[in-house]
Design goal:
By secondary structure, the chain is mostly helical. The protein starts with 13 loop residues before the first helix and ends with a helix.
């Protein structure tokens, strides 16, 4: 671990612990990412993220922390709403939903195309292309000025694998095929 005035002898981050109202264990990669933030060793994207993760693990409300996190992110437009007829289930859609609270699509991102690609690949294709998907996430993090080092790579991998597992739980037999009603509704919306 590194020297930080907010790191206790038992490797607890006092900043994240204060935000989460509980004891938050720090990792060396988390400390490194925190020290690279524009506001190191204080309230920043990393410490807020650590607090959110710990509160979610305890099934506690994170709305206040999300609002705080929003104030630390670059100004972005409100997220767009997906039409039900345009929704295609798949690991990419699951990942998109998981990231929606944190990162909104921008005009220049390739998020939608990449989510659709993941959906087209399916579970096995996403596992086969795991490194590619992680690189996509790291590339987008870098473009948005977010941490994008080894710590973020670990988080990105975990997010992708979680998205795959969520999709598998929801659709154990794979994604359902769209029926004719879906296409009719889609045509009416245009």
């Amino acid at each position: 671990m590194m020297h930080c005035p907010n790191l206790t002898n038992d490797n607890r981050c006092q900043v994240a612990s204060h935000l989460a109202d509980c004891s938050v264990q720090a990792s060396s990669s988390g400390c490194r990412a925190c020290s690279e933030c524009s506001n190191p060793q204080a309230v920043n994207l990393v410490t807020i993220g650590m607090a959110i993760v710990n509160k979610r693990r305890r099934n506690q409300n994170v709305d206040e922390l999300k609002a705080l996190l929003k104030s630390y992110l670059p100004n972005q437009e409100e997220p767009t709403t997906l039409r039900i007829a345009a929704y295609k289930p798949g690991p990419g859609s699951e990942l998109r939903k998981m990231l929606a609270w944190f990162a909104r699509p921008s005009d220049t991102c390739k998020c939608e195309t990449r989510a659709e690609t993941m959906n087209d690949w399916g579970v096995e294709g996403c596992r086969t292309n795991l490194d590619t998907i992680i690189e996509w996430l790291l590339e987008e993090a870098q473009l948005r000025g977010l941490p994008h080092g080894k710590f973020t790579r670990t988080i990105a991998k975990s997010l992708v694998l979680t998205a795959i597992r969520r999709f598998e739980r929801k659709f154990p037999d794979g994604a359902p095929e769209p029926n004719e009603d879906d296409f009719d509704a889609d045509e009416e919306d245009r």
